[in-house]
Amino acid sequence: MGIDFNPQRWDRVRETYGQWWAKELDRPVIPVIVKGNDPGRPEPETPLLTQQTSLDLSVPAGDLIDRIDYELSKNIYLGDSFPYYNMDCFGPGVVAAFLGAVPDNSTGNIWFEPEEIVDLKDMHFQYDPENIWWKRVQEIYREAVRLWNGDVVIGMVDLGGILDILATFRTTERLLMDLYDQPEEIKRLTWEIHELWMRYYHEINDILSPVARGYSDWSKIFSEKPSYVIQSDFTFMVGTPMFVEFAKPELQAAAAKIPHTLFHLDGPGELNHLDELLSIGDINAIQWVPGAGAPPQTQWPDVYRKISQAGKGIQLFDGLDCIEAVAAQIGTTRGLLHWDIEVAPEEMDTVIKRLEKFGVTPR
Question: Cβ(309)–Cβ(287) under 8 Å?
Answer without folding.
Answer: no
